[in-house]
Structures are given as structure tokens and as C-alpha cells.
Amino acid sequence: MTAAICTAALIFPSAISLTASAAEYSADGYTLTYTISGSSAVITDYSGTVTSLTIPSSVGGYTVTAIDSEAFAEVSGLTDVTIPDSVTSIDERAFWNCKSLKNVFLGSGVSQIGTYAFSACPRLDSFSVSASNSTYTAVNGMLYSYDGSTLISYAGGSSADVPEGTKTIGKAAFFGNSALNSVKLPSGLTSIGDYAFSGCFSLGKVSVPLTVTSLGKGSFMNCSVLTEVTLGAGLRDIPEECFSMCTSLESIYISSNITKIGAGAFFSCQKLAGIYIPASVVSIGTDAVGTHYNIRTGKNEPFKDFYITGDRGSAAHKYAIATGFDFIDSMTPPYGDVDADGYVNAVDASLVLTEYAKTATGNPSTLTFYERTAADYNCDGAINALDASLILTEYAENATNQM
User: Fold this and answer.
1) β pairing state of 23-27 and 30-37
2) Residues of the chain with CATH 3.80.10.10
3) What would the pLDDT profile of 359-388 be if each residue is shown by its tens digit?
4) CA-CA-CA-CA torsion for 128, 133, 139, 145, nearest 10 degrees?
5) 113 SS3 class
6) Is there a contact between 306 and 274 (Cβ–Cβ < 8 Å)?
7) 79, 177, 210, 342: which sits with the fewest CB atoms below 10 Å from its CB?
């Protein structure tokens, strides 16, 4: 902030027009709307053309103590904001979606910051915090709890290297950061809060450290280009909506330490053709995997040919039966039994040859994933006459042994 702008904010005479519940303060290039409570003022709205703003510590003789919800939301052109020592509270979404905002200075009095207060600000480059503030601090330009253990709000560009010593990624810390394309999480991190990375539309890969024991609801929701996720073995639950609407996610490894998959955890992951769910998982929520919302019918519906692999009799098996998904027993894969009747015989070989004839002439496959898995007898990735021959060989051997 320049001295000239600070002076303008404090010295220019204010024009106050009281209504039943609000007043206005006008200075060079901007107007603040505020409400009065006792001797305190709460900023409720802003309009103006300045790029750098120092919020005054008093307006109309009242001390500015709070910034209300959405007071500066979606303001364009504002690049720098200084919040005075008199302010103790910044409410949720206060600076939501300020697309030009780059730098924020917090005074000594700020002790409460609401969720999403600085979310969806893709150009936010740095936070600075008064040395006298006992609640918050800045670490590498990012906003942290005073003890440096919790990342409150991210700032710093498209590549994030979260410092060692960080224990918690706070709720919505990276929410809506459309510029973020990579993140490195430190060893020693223990938890990632609700919606922490939700709406990070450019984030392609994530590796969750082994030390993380807790993921929050919707923590990676709507990361539309996320293709690869590594979940550390410290996790026990995949919470509800965790990877919901990650439409580019192609595969996910679920370790045998996971016991619960929450409702909608992988909802509308359209490139996820199937999923392996280990026997350790005893609880699977509604629409956890394999479903999406059909705008035409207004209902959640299963993806065509979605499959689940797991142990027979497990929660995964029961979920597959209840939802009508193909199930592949990981202990006894169905090699050769294309029609799933419990026998490998000439009928299965005929189905393989029919499939081969269709795809060889450029026609699409009509088999489900389960059927294709069984038809590819030699597991070479192709369904052809060789698979049919091997199926017939097994059929002949079984028939001979039974004579």
C-alpha cells in the first residue's frame, strides 16, 4: 500500500447517509456500506474503482470491528487490501471470487476468519500478517494459524509446496483455486479438511502422505482434470463426496486399511470404468461409486458397464448385487465363463467368436466389462479366435476328466 492511498482512506472527508439500518462512508474512489451496533461498525458492502484499498479503522465516528459475509465478494479490479487493527472478525465469503486480488494484509486484531473468506481468488499471491497478531501468521505468503500447524488459506500461484511442519490443511484452504495445477503435501501432515481442494479445476495429480489419517467431506470434489490419486495407508475412511465429480479420474487404489466409503465418494466419475474394493471395507454409502446424475431424467443412474472387483460375500459384492453392477471375484476371476453360468464350454467359445467378428469389422463391443474379462482368456488385452480356441481346449479337458 502506498502512503498516499492510506492517507486518502483516512483523511478524505466522509459522506454519511443514514438509513434505518445502514450508513455509507465515501472516500476517494470508493464507498463502504456499514451497519452500526453500539459504538462499532460492520462493513457490509463495497463499491469503487481503486486497486489498492486500506479499510479505515473508523467510519462516521464508529470503530470498524468486522467485515460482513460477502462484503467484498466478486469485486473486480481490487488487487491489494489492508485490514486495520480494529477489525476482529472477517466473515465467510467476505472476499469471495475477487479475481484480481493479489495481496492481503491482516492487522493485529483479526481473531476470526470465516470459511471461504478468501476462496476462489486465483491470483492471490500473498498474505501478510501484523507481528502483533496472536491468532494468525503468514508462512511463505500463505495464511496459517499462529502456531504454524494449520494452513488456513493458500496464496502463491499455480504450484503449491506446502511447508514441512504443517499438520492440517484447513477447511476450504485451496477451494476454488482454478490456477492451481500441482501440489506437494508434506510428510507429517495428518488431516485435510472439508472441501480443502474442491473446485481446483487445473489440479491433475495428488499424492496423500502416509501420515494423513483424515480426509474431509468433499475434499477433492469437482477437481475436473484430476486423473491420478495416491491415498496413503494411514487413511481408514474415504468420506462422502470426497472425489465427487472428478470427471477425469481414471483409476484409484483403495488400500486394505480402508473400512468405509462414504455416500457419493466417487459420484459422477465418468472415466472410472470400475473399481477394486478390498474386503476391509464394511460400509459403502449411497451412490458411492458407479453412478451419475442424468439431467434428462432428473435421477441418479448407474454408468453403463461399470464393474466392481472384490471378494465374494464382502460389502463390495453385496453393493454390486444391490446396484446391479458387474462383480468380478478377485480370488477366482471368470476366465472363459463368458455367460456366467458356472461352466466353460462351447457356448462361451461361440460368444467369443461372435464378439471377435463384431469388433474385427469395426462394430462396437456389446459385452459388459465382466463378459470381456471372461472372454479375454489369455489376458493379452484382445478378444479373438485364440481365446475361443483356449476355451474349447479347457472344455475338452474338463469333459475328458469327467468321463
Assistant:
1) antiparallel
2) 157-330
3) 888 887 777 767 878 888 887 878 999 999
4) -130
5) strand
6) yes
7) 342
β-sheet bridge partners, residue 153: 143
> For residue 50, what are the CA distances in angstroms to 31, 90, 100, 240, 282?
10, 21, 12, 42, 57
The pLDDT, as a whole number, for residue 89 is 98
Indicate if the pLDDT at residue 2 is higher than 50. Answer: no
Amino acid at 245: M
Please report which confidence band the pLDDT of residue 403 belongs to, taking 50, 70 and 90 as the band edges: low
Spatial neighbors of 386 by CB under 8 A, at least 6 apart, are 377, 378
The 3-class SS string of 34-66 reads EEEECCEEEEEEEEECCCEEECCCEECCEEEEE
- Domain 1-129 is found in CATH 3.80.10: yes
DSSP-assigned letter for residue 185: P
Indicate whether this model's pTM tops 0.85: no
Compute the Cα dihedral for 295, 300, 301, 307 and give only its sign: positive
Q: Which residue in the block uniquely carries the three cell numbers 481442494? A: 197
Return the CA Rg of the chain. Answer: 29
Confidence of residue 402 (pLDDT cuts 50, 70, 90): low
Higher-pLDDT residue of 248 and 13 is: 248
